[in-house]
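Posting this for the archive.
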Amino acid sequence: AFETTDMLRRALRLHVCDYIHKPFDVTTIRQAVQKAMNRRLAQEDRNQNARARELENELLAIQMEEQLSRLRAELYAAVLHDMKNTLSIVSGYAQMIALRLSGVTEPTPSDWAMFKKYFSDINQHLTNSVELARRYLADFTQWVDAGSTTQVNRVLRDLEAFVCFHPAARNHKFTLEPLPQELEVNLSRTELFQLLLNIVLNAFQCTSEPHQVWVQGFVVSTPLDLLSIHETPFERMCNLEGFDNTPPIAVVQVRDTGPGIPEHLLPRIFDGGFSTKPGLGAGLGIMIVTRLIKRARGALHVYTKPGEGSAFTIYLPAAFVD
């Protein structure tokens, strides 16, 4: 009835023992054996799927831990970078006060008025530093302050006042032209200030030789022609795929007459941790800039030419201020 000895062995191995003493035909036995084999294969598949899910969960946990480690490192680096900027400006104010007091036995009323303004500015910068740390912590915990907007020209005025006392701006010429019409963008005042400050400081620090830095604002009332934007040996674009090309668009361009970015370094300009200032920079400024650009659904265009300087142009979707 079992047709072959091998079929009998398979029946015994699969615990189909009742067919040994029952006179079933070959077809019935084959069906019973196949059914038993299917049950075993199904159980093996369930076991394998369960193991695969366990491995997938373990891999996901490892990946999440790696991502958290990277976020922690970026958080600490960004906070330290901003603390350095704040300490630099406080140091600049301290030197101004020391210079004002040198050779003076008793400060005049005008001196006290000047000191009061300096201390007010220092307090504002320290407050900004605390706010930036809070923002980075918000990024780390995946909490975003949705709906926060700020007026661009207000931040440009803050930037102009800040740069005047920053050590990086010494011996260099600085010119700022605000937007011809006020716009507001989807970043907080502190975030937009930090975005612009990092680009401006990079422009000042591109060389120790005296040079000029311009900051100029524009308003674009029509969508940009994105098809005409291409990466070349002298140009790079950041976040083109995530850019909200809905007008009006706030445009802020930062130009300098420095040495420009070498052609072989330009492709790495948006890489985290990369700096064109070996020994002086850690690449944190541009990392912060690209993060804020992506958060605001903006874009950043870089044009540079060795020996002539560089231009960083920021595009941010905006709204007119009533």
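The first helix runs from residue 5 to 13. Confidence is low (pLDDT under 50) at residues 142-146.
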